[in-house]
Amino acid sequence: MNSAATDRIQHHSAIIVGGGPGGLGVAAVLEGWHPRFSGDFQFPVPEVQRIAEEFRDSPLELDQHRVLNAGLRPIEFYRMRHHPTQEALPLDEWTLKFEKRQRVGWKMLSLDKPGGLWNNVPREQLTLGPAHWMELAPYPVTQFYADTGRERDPNQLIHKDDIVPYYHAFAEKLGLNEHIQTGTEVRSISPLPKEAGARFLVEANTDTGEQQYTCDYLVFAVGPKSAERRLTATGADQPYITYGYHHADDLPGDRVMVIGGGRSADWAATECHDSGKTVVYVMRQSPEPHLKLINDSQYLPYYQRLAQILDGDQERMGLLYGSEVKEFRQGGEVVVGTPEGEITVQVDHVAVEIGGEPDYGLLKGFPGLTLVPKRDNFRFQVMQMQTDQATFESVDVEGLYPAGYLSKGTGLSVIGFHCGAYLIAGNILRSSGYFDT
Ligand SMILES: Cc1cc2nc3c(=O)[nH]c(=O)nc-3n(C[C@H](O)[C@H](O)[C@H](O)COP(=O)(O)OP(=O)(O)OC[C@H]3O[C@@H](n4cnc5c(N)ncnc54)[C@H](O)[C@@H]3O)c2cc1C
After folding, report:
1. pLDDT in tens, 365-385
2. Fewer CB within 10 Å: C terminus or N terminus of the chain?
3. What is the DSSP code (8-state) at residue 115?
């Protein structure tokens, strides 16, 4: 490092990269919002029940390997208290409470505001599950609804207009904003030599230029789409192509091509159709998995609507299965390879929703990270980092913690990963000697 660069280095005990629900959960605990168990609670394993009683006032102090050895997955140890039932519990029945203690030095670097990718989803986006499945336990969504005069049922799906303000309010209410730096793009995370006195070097582009940070604990919470997939077809930069759909009104003209085949593309195709546009829906997959996804999702109003469109006598949605765009020409002429051969389609606009993957390239300074594939019934799939299941610390790199659903052992949803925050923050606190004084 040259001396000009060293002038600009900031040190923090922990750096959290990514301000989505994954990063925010860890931030709250590092800020000092520690869980405790209160009232009567029951764990299914007697030894775990005994351990939980012993640590009820400060479960973060517990080495979760004891829970693991007793036969319960540590993430379940917290999840059973946060979500003991499928339905949202009334607040006075919660056995998971929080108490403010001393903070440790943490900083969050994030491109987006609190809430992560939810800031950028389509304008009318609804979740796949109930509102309380999206919540971070230190500030229950029921409490947020009450505080903001929203008459909503936490067991119902939650709209973007509520979930984004919820995550913003979470950061505000718990005093996190002072330590969250948004508009910051982390470019690389690399190891430091032992004599440097810190484990990680983080290089980022900020509003005011390049900045370097060092830290001892790195929480990697960049989310599932931080490395967006790009189309390889010729002309993929034509001005009539939009990457990342927000609303049908943003797409000029009447004829829209939607490229994708997952849930986000289904949303865009349905909404464009219902706004009166003619939709050409292009996807690589064959009809079977797509129709299975639609059938399996009939509990969601927006999938009922898509099924209705496809079942009915609609004439404004054409689906091209097993197909791939070969070329985007000037003026909206798109060449598509289909099982029957190449065809040319004339459209006014193209919306591309082909997803992304976690940007593990940011960690290229750590070759040999062990990644394992994970997929779930909601049809998400992602590569997860191999971690110690009691701490969610990487098995390959000391002090590195994948958060959100980037750690092995979490489900691919907020309810599936949130309690990993207590394993991560607890291990950071214990290994940094927080509880020793
Ligand atoms: C349309 C849609 C609907 C969904 N519906 C649901 C649902 O109903 N229920 C559910 O549980 N999940 C749902 N998900 C999954 C979603 O991934 C989670 O809800 C949640 O947002 C994941 O949280 P996260 O913190 O891991 O990642 P994200 O929310 O993606 O947050 C990560 C953040 O990290 C930041 N970041 C990334 N790279 C960098 C970098 N290099 N430098 C700085 N910052 C960076 C970005 O600001 C990014 O927003 C949905 C996803 C989508 C796209």
Report:
1. 998 899 999 987 766 789 999
2. C
3. T
| Per-residue pLDDT reduced to its tens digit, 86-122 | 999 999 999 999 999 999 999 999 999 999 999 999 9
pLDDT at position 7 is: 54
Choose which residue among 128, 185, 222 to substitute to test ligand 1 binding: the one with the highest number of ligand atoms within 8 A of its C-beta: 222
Q: What is the pTM of this model?
A: 0.96
* CA-wise closest residue to 202 among 392, 8, 408, 433: 8
Residue 245 scores a pLDDT above 50: yes
Closest CA to 166 of 224, 113, 124, 219: 113
Ligand 1: which residues within 6 Å by Cβ?
A: 17-23, 109-112, 116-118, 121, 125, 127-129, 134, 184-186, 221-226, 264, 359, 362, 404-405, 413-414
What domains does the chain contain, in order, with CATH numbers? 3-226+357-436 (3.50.50.60), 230-354 (3.50.50.60)
- Please name the helix (run of DSSP H) or strand (run of DSSP E) that holds residue 311, with its range, or none: helix 301-311
Q: How far apart are CA 181 and CA 113, in angstroms?
A: 9
What's the 391 CA to ligand 1 centre distance in angstroms? Answer: 22
For tokens 């065809």, what's the residue?
Answer: 343
The residue whose CA is least distant from atom 15 of ligand 1 is 413
| Distance in Å, CA 116 to ligand 1 centroid | 5
